[in-house]
């Protein structure tokens, strides 16, 4: 099997189901967290940065387009977006002139 045939088959698999993209994303993040731990939690070994670099390498080596990958990883994108907004409201935005409970009501 040539590299071109492999990239066509990988694109077909990723486009058919979101499971490969979700599995790859979570697996890469687990590996990145392990590397972060092995580096004694050095800030230069940031698990998110390592995950991004590993996913770029995987997508490049398999010839998978980002749009095909993202079609399968939409669920993670949605969940992280909601979680990030909740964190933003809960921990960084302060409501002047009100108590903590009313701020939490705004956050959700």
**Largest sheet, strands/sense/barrel:** none
Q: Considering DSSP H and I runs of 4 or more, what fraction of the residues is helical?
A: over 70%
Rg over C-alpha atoms, rounded to the nearest angstrom: 19 Å
Strand content: under 5%
Stretches where pLDDT falls below 50 for ≥5 residues? Answer: 102-108
Shape: flat
* Gap from first CA to last CA: 52 Å
List the helices and strands and how they pair.
Blueprint: H1 3-16, H2 19-38, H3 47-62, H4 66-72, H5 74-92, H6 100-107
Helix pairs in contact: 2-3, 2-4, 5-6
Structural description of this entry:
- The chain has helices spanning 3-16, 19-38, 47-62, 66-72, 74-92, 100-107.
- The protein starts with a helix and ends with a helix.
- Mean pLDDT is 75; it is low at 102-108.
- It has 6 helices and no strands.
- By secondary structure, the chain is mainly alpha-helical.
State the gist of this model.
The protein has helices at residues 3-16, 19-38, 47-62, 66-72, 74-92, 100-107.
